[in-house]
Amino acid sequence: MAEKEIDVTLAAITNTGTDGISPKGVINICTVRAVDDEQVFQSENLYQRSNGQPMHPSGVQGLAPGGSLTYNVTKRLTVSHFEEESEGHLNQMMIFDPDLTQDVVDLGSINTVNYFGCFKRQVRFDEIEGFQTIDCLHNIAASGHNCRFTATYTINLVSSFG
Questions:
Q1: With contact defined as beta carbons under 8 Å apart, do 65 and 17 qualify?
Q2: DSSP 8-state code for residue 18
Q3: pLDDT in tens, 50-76
Q4: How many other C-beta atoms are found inside a 10 Å radius of the C-beta of residue 123?
Q5: Which of 35, 43, 95, 158 has its CA at 20 to 30 Å from residue 7's CA atom?
Q6: Residue 75 in contact with residue 66, Cβ under 8 Å?
């Protein structure tokens, strides 16, 4: 058996669209079974925002086009790999698992639209090496709105054995 202990950080969110953004919801990182990402072993929140809450600890409610916020929220995970799977010894990978929405005004009504783009972004066991930066683009599909942002993550291999 081999294991890798990693620190995963939400480093920043940058508005790459032409409209302001104010994403609500969560961004989780999880260790999951390598052949079935519905089997979760460990899950941690990197971002969590409900209605009325600021999107950043500084109190910022939204982010203008071109703006960026630094988060530096770090969580530690352990990812395991076995030569052959057996009961209780299942190969794992890490995934980014966002569930985010954006409120948009359309014809005088407020509509909640889901972000898409980086849903369940996988990082396989063999891909975890040293220090890496991963950018994930999130978009909404709403006529006349260009809400897009890039979430920048880092993965730092803390220890490895096996």
A1: yes
A2: S
A3: 999 999 999 999 999 999 999 999 999
A4: 19
A5: 35
A6: no
Task: Please list, in sequence order, all residues whose beta carbon lies within 8 angstroms of the beta carbon of residue 156, skipping any fewer than 6 positions away.
Answer: 6, 7, 8, 9, 130, 131
62-74-41-125 Cα dihedral, nearest 10 degrees: 110
Residue with tokens 């940058």, as numbered in its chain: 14
- pLDDT-derived band at 13 (thresholds 50, 70, 90) equals very high
User: Residue 55: what are its φ and ψ, rounded to 5°?
Assistant: -90, 0
CA dist., res. 48 & res. 69, Å (int): 15
pTM higher than 0.90 for the full model? yes
Token representation of residue 48: 């969590």
Running DSSP on this structure, what letter comes out for residue 127? G
18 contacts 146 by C-beta, under 8 angstroms:
yes
Q: What's the CA gap between 72 and 153, in Å, rounded?
A: 9
Altogether, the residues listed in the chain come to a count of: 162
Query: Of the candidates 128, 2, 148, which has an alpha carbon nearest to the alpha carbon of residue 66?
Result: 148
* Separation CA 48–CA 162 (nearest Å): 34
